[in-house]
Amino acid sequence: MATQKLWGGRFKEPLAEIALNFSSSIEFDRHLYEEDIAGSIAHVEMLASVKVLTSSEANRICTALNAIRKEIKTGKFKLTSEYEDVHSAIEQRLTQKIGALGGKLHTARSRNDQIALDERLFLRSSIKEINKLITNLQRVLLNKAEKNYGVLMPGYTHTQRAQAVMLSHHLLAYINMLERDYERMQDCSERLNKSPLGAAAFAGTPFPINRLKTAKKLGFDGIVENSIDAVSDRDFIIEFISGCSLTMMHLSRLAEELVLWTTKEFSFAQISDAYTTGSSIMPQKKNPDMAELIRGKTGRVYGSLINLLTTMKGLPLAYNRDMQEDKLPMFDTVKTVRESLLVMAHVLVHTTFNKFHLEEELRTDFLTATDMADYLVTKGIPFREAHRITGEVVQYCVTHKMYFGNLDLATMKEFSPKFEPDIFDFILPQTSVKRKQSAGSTSPQEVKKQIKNWTQTLRKRKV
């Protein structure tokens, strides 16, 4: 029974074993058994409502399908390589249990619209889970921002030290990035939430089915209107993986900073031993492997996106067997993003920041050079001239191996008579940060406002 094909009537010879092994998708689409059975039950109930099946027939089929779901879950019925795909396996098992009546399950349906349905159901639930994990990571970042409120650090552009910022402000930037990821997932979920079931192979069916009824039973907002598009579209998977690629890019940037910040050279942060590893040869090593793996796994998701874009780029309408190759990148992306979000949250929970070292680094650099130029602007000097004067002060300090804090007023007046005693307070990192006024800046009041807004936003979110 297991080798019987749903399409075997037209063929004189059985499928060659090598061809069966090459074309079988059961190894990966077996993960869709829950979605496949849910879709089948909704389809059967709809067929009964339009009198294509009797109520008795529908009840027997649905009861058997629920039993098969339990058999698969408990391991009593194994979806092995002897079956062509998950659809064939379940239908054949159904026929074993209830006889010829099982053959009526496929009335007004094709594996083409069946698999498109399964994938939409799978991604819909996967997106909900991923958005829960995104929200959880945002909450971890927010907690770190609250706990480290008031801690200053060097901010960077071009990986060169630029200006003093609050550590909280830096962490809040990632919450903003993740919020866009959350919104993209929500948008993707809304677009994919249309049912392709009832499109059959691609041209529709002569049976008097009610596609909207089936869609409603399965929680869809409506149907994919065009039956050809319904079975040949994989935009929703590509869009999902595209969104996941951006999420992984954001995680990779955060991972890269953790890798840098935990080096001896930076010493900005420490990750708990529970989320680091050692060396097989160098006893002193403590490596940020979890962050590095997240950074590395980003390439897997990018690869999945290119994989599916390439698969779909030259396909004529409607369904083509090439599209069977959509499942591996889809499943791998879901697994990779889910695990990366979860692990990153755990890593951050177990990361501490070296407050005193961060602030000491501010003292021994020129991160308030812009503030010095701004000071001169307040004294009536055009900014471009103030920029030049400050650059000369910096060059003087570099040449004499000193910092702003080592200068005296007399020396500074050699560069501009506009310098007064208040310059020394003006160029303190703490003053620099406090003086920022623009919305969304690194000033304590603006950072506090951001923390409050995110606290309210994430508290309201139902995930």
Structural description of this entry:
The protein has 463 residues and is mainly alpha-helical. The protein folds into 3 domains: 100 residues, Fumarase/aspartase (N-terminal domain) (Fumarase C, Chain B, domain 1), CATH 1.10.275; 221 residues, Fumarase C, Chain A, domain 2 (Up-down Bundle), CATH 1.20.200.10; 100 residues, Ribonucleotide Reductase Protein R1, domain 1. Helix content is 60%, strand content 5%. It is built from 19 helices and 6 strands. The model has no long low-confidence stretch (mean pLDDT 94).
Question: Keywords for this structure?
Answer:
single chain, 3 domains, Ribonucleotide Reductase Protein R1, domain 1, mainly alpha, Fumarase C, Chain B, domain 1, Fumarase C, Chain A, domain 2, 463 residues, 5% strand
